[in-house]
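Need residues for this backbone.
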C-alpha cells in the first residue's frame, strides 16, 4: 500500500537535525525527498565518520531520501534549482534568512517560480528582532529559552549542564515542521493555494515549557513565583554568580519541600540497577505507599504547606529509609510489586538496551535496513503507524547518488550534466 504522501516531492535544504528529521518523517509517509547537499556532503556526514562520507548521525536522520550534491553558491547551480522547483510540492530551508536569500532559495524567489509552493522555513530565533541574524544550535537555544537553567543541574565548576541525552529543541522542531507541512498540503488540496510555514528552535523550546513560561497573577502571587522573580532580579543587579541565581530561584520553601517530600514521581536505586515511578494522582499515590509499605504521605500530607523544622527533619529521614528499602530488592522484584499494585513504573534502561527489549520488538518499533555502502543496520522505525497508508523507510543515500536523475528532471542533457560536473557545480 502507498504511503499517505505518495506523489509529493520535497526539496530539502537543511543539515544537522531539525530539517533532516522533519523530512525523514515525511519520507516515511511516502514523500519523495530530495536532500540537497554541498559536494563534500553536509556536516553531519563528516562528524564521527566510520566510513568515508558516512556517519551514524547522518544515517539516522536521512533515511528514505535521495541525494542531490550541488554547489549552491554557483549561479549555474541556482539555475538548476530554479528549473527543478516547478517539479516539487514542498521546499524546506533550514538556513539563516540571509543565507537563503543569497543562494536564491528564499520564499519570494521560489514562490514566484511556483505560486502554489509550500515553503517551510526554520531558523534558530525567528526572522525578526535583534537575534534574527544569529545562527543557533540546540545547546544555545536550551540556554536562551530558560530550559537549561530550569533543569537546575550544575557541573563541577558551577557551570550549567545541558540536556545532553538528546537535542530536544531540534527534534521537537523537526516534528513541528512535519506537522505544519502536512497541514499545508491539506490546505492546498482544498484551496489550491501554497503558503509559507515558519518554525524556530526557540519557539519549540518555549512551547515545551508552556506551564513554566506562564504569567498568571492570581496563581503566581499565591505560590511565591513573583517573590522568586524579584529575588532573582535583585541578585542579578548585584552581579551574583550563576550558582547564586539558581539557588535563589529554586531555594524557596515550596521547592525545598517538593524535593524532600517526593516519593511518588522519581527514580530510585535498586539492588541491581534503578527504577522510576510516576504517580500524579491521589489514587496512584495511595498505591505507591502500599507498594513501598509506608504510611509517609509526602506530597499528600495536608501539613506540607506549613511544614515545621521537625516535619522537614522527619520527612528527610522517612525518604532516606524508603530509598534504602528500595535498594534492598532487585529491579525485577520491584517491577513485580509495582505491577501488582498498579503503580506506573519501569526499569532505568540504557538506549542500547532497546535493541533487544521485548516490548520494543513486540510492537515492531525497529526496522532492518541495508545501506548501499555500509551494509545491514537496525534503526528506530517510523514514529507512528497508520493502518490504511502504512509508513515505511529505507536507508539513507550515499552522497550524490541521485544527482544525475534530478538534473535530468530539471531538463539537463547528459552532456550538460557532465559539463557541470567538470567545473565542480555537481558532485
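Answer:
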Amino acid at each position: 500500500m502507498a504511503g499517505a504522501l505518495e506523489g509529493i516531492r520535497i526539496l530539502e535544504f537543511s543539515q544537522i537535525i531539525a530539517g533532516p528529521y522533519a523530512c525523514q518523517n515525511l519520507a516515511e509517509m511516502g514523500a519523495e525527498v530530495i536532500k540537497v547537499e554541498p559536494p563534500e556532503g553536509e556536516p553531519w556526514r563528516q562528524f564521527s565518520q566510520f566510513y568515508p562520507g558516512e556517519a551514524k548521525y547522518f544515517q539516522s536522520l536521512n533515511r528514505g531520501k535521495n541525494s542531490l550534491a550541488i554547489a549552491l553558491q554557483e549561479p549555474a547551480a541556482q539555475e538548476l534549482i530554479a528549473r527543478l522547483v516547478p517539479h516539487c510540492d514542498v521546499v524546506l530551508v533550514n538556513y539563516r534568512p540571509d543565507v537563503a536569500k543569497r543562494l536564491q532559495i528564499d520564499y519570494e524567489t521560489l514562490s514566484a517560480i511556483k505560486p502554489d509552493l509550500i515553503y517551510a522555513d526554520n531558523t534558530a530565533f525567528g526572522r525578526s528582532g535583534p537575534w534574527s541574524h544569529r545562527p543557533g544550535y540546540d545547546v544555545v537555544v536550551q540556554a536562551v529559552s530558560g530550559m537549561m537553567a530550569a533543569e537546575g543541574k550544575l557541573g563541577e565548576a558551577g557551570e550549567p549542564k545541558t540536556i545532553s541525552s538528546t537535542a530536544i529543541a531540534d527534534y521537537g522542531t523537526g516534528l513541528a515542521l512535519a506537522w505544519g507541512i502536512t497541514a499545508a498540503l491539506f490546505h492546498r488540496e482544498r484551496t489550491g493555494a501554497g503558503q509559507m510555514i515558519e518554525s524556530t528552535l526557540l519557539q519549540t523550546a518555549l512551547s515545551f515549557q508552556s506551564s513554566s513560561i506562564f504569567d498568571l497573577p492570581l496563581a503566581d502571587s499565591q505560590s511565591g513565583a513573583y517573590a522568586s522573580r524579584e529575588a532573582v532580579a535583585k541578585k542579578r543587579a548585584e552581579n551574583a554568580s550563576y550558582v547564586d541565581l539558581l539557588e535563589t530561584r529554586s531555594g524557596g520553601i515550596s521547592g525545598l519541600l517538593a524535593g524532600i517530600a517526593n516519593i511518588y514521581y522519581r527514580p530510585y536505586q535498586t539492588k541491581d540497577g534503578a527504577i522510576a515511578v510516576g504517580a500524579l494522582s491521589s489514587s496512584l499515590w495511595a498505591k505507591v505507599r502500599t507498594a513501598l509499605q509506608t504510611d509517609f504521605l509526602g506530597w499528600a500530607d495536608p501539613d506540607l504547606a506549613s511544614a515545621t523544622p521537625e516535619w522537614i527533619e522527619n520527612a528527610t529521614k522517612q525518604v532516606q529509609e524508603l530509598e534504602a528499602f528500595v535498594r534492598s530488592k532487585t529491579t525485577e522484584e520491584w517491577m513485580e510489586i509495582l505491577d501488582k499494585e498498579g503503580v506506573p513504573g519501569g526499569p532505568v534502561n540504557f538506549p542500547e538496551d532497546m535493541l533487544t527489549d521485548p516490548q520494543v520488538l513486540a510492537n515492531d518499533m525497529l526496522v532492518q535496513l541495508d545501506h548501499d555502502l555500509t551494509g545491514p543496520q537496525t534503526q528506530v522505525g517510523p514514529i507512528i503507524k497508520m493502518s490504511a497508508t502504512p509508513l515505511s523507510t529505507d536507508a539513507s543515500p550515499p552522497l550524490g547518488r541521485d544527482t544525475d536523475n534530478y538534473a535530468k528532471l530539471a531538463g539537463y542533457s547528459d552532456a550538460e550534466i557532465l559539463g557541470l560536473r567538470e567545473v565542480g557545480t555537481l558532485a
